[in-house]
């Protein structure tokens, strides 16, 4: 998920890591320093349109390295969330570094996530601007619920429960969609989807250039 820069959102210094509050946390997660940048897949590539496989092996160096690489790739792309199939790996895993509507920062990863949304009778849908690192340069209004809970596992196989409201709830829903083989474009009308693809065609080269600049800065 691409970062939505909204200056009207309040700023809060609180940070939740893996769903739990912490006293302090660095601006760049430690995974970033250990990772390598991977290529981000783009709409139209087959891996983005099919469900990902369950992760069955935990605590492995390969899984830790993938998470490190995803964190660095997400930060280079100025993202708030990134799913494994966006770096060409068809596993049910995503990482995130995303604020909620109160400015509280949420950082972590979750494996084999299951999304739990509010009861439809009490569900509140919010239209807000949404972008995707696999649809570079495009943003569109997408309806999402203002609260979401995701249950899954961490890289060592320990159970996780992550709750989100507002913009962070949007992020949790967006990334879980990816692992089911869906892009936010799939939630748009045909007309709006064409508009998003036109935006991408116009802006993608600028977005790619910005990613290269950020990668160069982080490598210094």
* The first-level CATH class name: Alpha Beta
Overall body shape: globular
* Element pattern in H and E: EEHHEEEEEEEHH
Tally of domains: 1
Q: Which structural class do the helices and strands define?
A: alpha+beta
Strand content: 25-35%
What CATH architecture do you see? Answer: Alpha-Beta Complex
- Using the coordinates shown, work out and report the CATH topology: Peptide Deformylase
Low-confidence stretches: none
- Give the fraction of residues assigned to helices: 25-40%
CA radius of gyration is: 16 Å
Total of DSSP H or I helical runs spanning 4+ residues: 4
Question: What this model shows, in words?
Answer:
29% of the residues lie in helices and 28% in strands. The chain is α+β, with helices and mostly antiparallel strands and 220 residues long. The chain has a single domain, classed as Peptide deformylase (Peptide Deformylase), CATH 3.90.45.10. The strands form two sheets. Strands 1, 2, 3, 4, 5, 8 and 9 form a seven-stranded mixed sheet that branches.
Give a short overview.
The chain has 220 residues and is an alpha+beta fold. Helices cover 29% and strands 28% of the residues.
Task: Write the SSE topology.
Blueprint: E1 15-17, E2 20-22, H1 30-34, H2 61-76, E3 81-83, E4 93-99, E5 105-116, E6 125-132, E7 135-145, E8 147-153, E9 159-165, H3 166-179, H4 190-218
Parallel strand pairs: 1-5
Antiparallel strand pairs: 1-2, 3-4, 4-5, 5-8, 6-7, 8-9
């Amino acid at each position: 998920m691409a970062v939505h820069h909204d200056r009207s959102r309040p700023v809060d210094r609180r940070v939740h890591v893996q769903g739990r509050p912490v006293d302090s946390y660095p601006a760049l997660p430690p995974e970033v320093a250990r990772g390598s940048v991977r290529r981000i897949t783009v709409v139209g590539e087959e891996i983005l349109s099919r469900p990902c496989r369950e992760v069955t092996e935990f605590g492995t160096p390969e899984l830790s390295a993938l998470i490190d690489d995803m964190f660095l790739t997400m930060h280079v792309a100025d993202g708030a969330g990134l799913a494994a199939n966006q770096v060409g790996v068809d596993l049910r895993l995503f990482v995130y570094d995303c604020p909620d509507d109160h400015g509280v920062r949420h950082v972590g990863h979750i494996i084999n996530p299951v999304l739990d949304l509010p009861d439809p009778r009490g569900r509140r849908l919010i239209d807000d601007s949404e972008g995707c690192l696999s649809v570079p340069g495009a943003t569109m209004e997408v309806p999402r619920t203002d609260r979401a809970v995701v249950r899954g596992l961490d890289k060592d196989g320990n159970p996780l429960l992550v709750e989100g409201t507002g913009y962070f709830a949007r992020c949790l829903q967006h990334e879980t969609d990816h692992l089911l083989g869906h892009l936010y474009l799939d939630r748009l009308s045909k007309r709006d989807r064409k508009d998003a693809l036109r935006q991408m065609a116009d802006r993608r080269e600028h977005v790619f250039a910005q990613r290269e600049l950020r990668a160069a800065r982080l490598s210094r």
